[in-house]
Amino acid sequence: MRVQISSRLASITGSAIRDIFKLLGDPSIISFAGGNPASSALEPERIADFASQALRENGRTILQYGQTEGYAPLRESAAEFFRHNGVHADPGHILPVSGSQQGLDLICKALLNEGDTMLVEDPTFLGALQTFRTYGARFAAVATDEDGAIPESLEEQIRLHHPKLIYLIPTFQNPTGRTLSLERRKRIAEIVNRYEVPLIEDDPYCDLRYAGSPLPAIKSFDAQGYVLYLNSFSKIISPGLRVAAVVCDDDALLRKLVVGKQSVDVHSPNLNQAIIDKYLRSGLLQQHVEEICASYAKQMAKMQQMLARFPASISYTKPDGGIFLWCTLPEGFNATELLTTATKRGVAYIPGTHFYAQAGQHHNTMRLNFSNASLENIETGMERLRELFISQGLR
Ligand SMILES: Cc1ncc(COP(=O)(O)O)c(C=O)c1O
C-alpha cells in the first residue's frame, strides 16, 4: 500500500522499551528493561471480586455509555485518595483518564501548538517525550542534581524560552529514581505561579516509598492552579486496567481536556474505573501497597548490593523508592551498542540515551528496573551484566 504518513507521526519512532520487549521473547533473557509491577503484585482474584460487586450493584450504568468526565464515584474516591499527597481537589476537578499516558496526551492536545517549547528534566520518561514530540514540542532542559530539578535553572529557562508547558516527575523519577526535595517543591510551585506557566506534575511512583518520609506533592503548594497533577493506579494496582486521573483546577482548561478526550475514546471504560473505585473504598489498598513496597525494597537492595560489586568507575543512583536505578558508565562506553551483546549473554536493560530530549546523546547511561525480577534473577542477571562490563575493559 502506498500511503503518505502525516507529518505529525512521520518522524516519531515507537517507544524503545516496546521495541526491546519484542527482543525478549526468549525466556532465558533476564530483563531489567521494562517498568512493570511484579506479577505477584497483581491480584486477579481480588479484582474479579471488585468487578463482580460493581456489576451486581451498578451493572446497567457500568455497561452503558458513560460520561467523558468520568465515573462519578471514582471522581469522589480519587479526590479522597489524593489527599494523602496533600492534593485537596474537588471531585469536579478530577478527570479519570485511560492511563497517565492519556492524561499527558490530552494536556498537550489542549495546550501545545507545533513548535512550542517545553521544559523537561534531562533525562525524563521516554513515553512522555514521545507524546510531546507528537504535538511538535521543542525542548529545553531544566538542570537537575541529586535533589531533582534545580529551581534557579527552572526560572532561568522560563525567562530564556518562555515555555508553554513544564513537565516534571518529582518523586522517584523515571528513569533516575531521584526525588525533588520539599524546599524545591515549594519554590517550584511559587515560580510556575509567578510566571504563569502550567506545570505537569507526573506522580505515579509516590506511594512506592521504601525509606524516608513521604513528601507532599508540588500541587499542594499551588496557589493559583498552575499545577496539573497526574497520578496513576498502574504501578500500585494494575497497568492493564488503564486508570489514572488528572487534577485540573481550571474549569476552562478542564473542559478542553474533556473535549479532547471525547474524540479519542468517549470515556475510559466504566468497569475499570468502577474496579479502582471499589478498591479505593475497600480500605485494603494501604496494606497492599505496604506489601508490594516490602518486596520491592528487597529487590532494590539486592540490585544495589550487586551494583556495589561492579567496577568502581560505574556510578548509580540510590533512591528511597520507585522501581528504577540509573547507571552511568565512564565516558566513551556505549550502553546502546552493548545491549546486543548483553541480550546474547541473557540480560537486558534500556539504554539511557532514549530518555534524553535531544536524540543520540549520553550513550554511557542505562536504566535498570528491579520491580519485575525475582531476587534470584536479579542476582543472576546483574552478575551477567558485571561480567559483560569487565569483558569490555571497565575497571
Ligand atoms: C513517569 C511516568 N508517567 C506516566 C507513565 C504511564 O503510566 P500509565 O500506565 O498510567 O499510562 C509511566 C509509566 O511507566 C511513567 O513512568
What does this structure look like?
The chain folds into 2 domains: 7-43 and 286-391, Aspartate Aminotransferase, domain 1; 66-282, Type I PLP-dependent aspartate aminotransferase-like (Major domain) (Aspartate Aminotransferase, domain 2). Helix content is 42%, strand content 14%. It has 13 helices and 15 strands. The strands form 4 sheets. A 7-stranded mixed sheet has the order 2-10-9-8-7-3-4, sandwiched between helices. Helix 8 (182-195) links the parallel strand 7 (165-168) and strand 8 (199-202). The N and C termini lie far apart (52 Å). The mean pLDDT is 96. The structure holds pyridoxal-5'-phosphate. Pyridoxal-5'-phosphate binds at residues 35, 99-101, 125, 127, 169, 174, 202, 204, 232, 234, 239, 244.
In short:
The protein is of the alpha/beta class. Helices cover 42% and strands 14% of the residues. The chain is built from 13 helices and 15 strands.
What is the radius of gyration?
Answer: 21 Å
Largest sheet: 7 strands, mixed
Q: Identify every distinct bound molecule in the structure, by name, code or SMILES.
A: pyridoxal-5'-phosphate
Low-confidence stretches: none
CATH superfamily of the largest domain: Type I PLP-dependent aspartate aminotransferase-like (Major domain)
Mean pLDDT value: 96
Q: Between the first and last Cα atoms, what is the distance in angstroms? A: 52 Å
Choose one word for the global shape. globular
Give the DSSP E fraction (strand runs of 2 or more residues). Answer: 5-15%
CATH-level-2 architecture of the largest domain? 3-Layer(aba) Sandwich
Strand order of the largest sheet: 2-10-9-8-7-3-4
Question: Total number of β-strand segments?
Answer: 15
Structural class: alpha/beta
What is the level 1 CATH name of the largest domain? Alpha Beta
What's the domain count? 2
Q: Which fold name is given in CATH as the topology of the largest domain?
A: Aspartate Aminotransferase, domain 2
Q: What pattern of helices and strands is seen along the backbone?
A: HHEHHEHEHEEEHEHEEEHHHEEHEEEH
Number of helices: 13
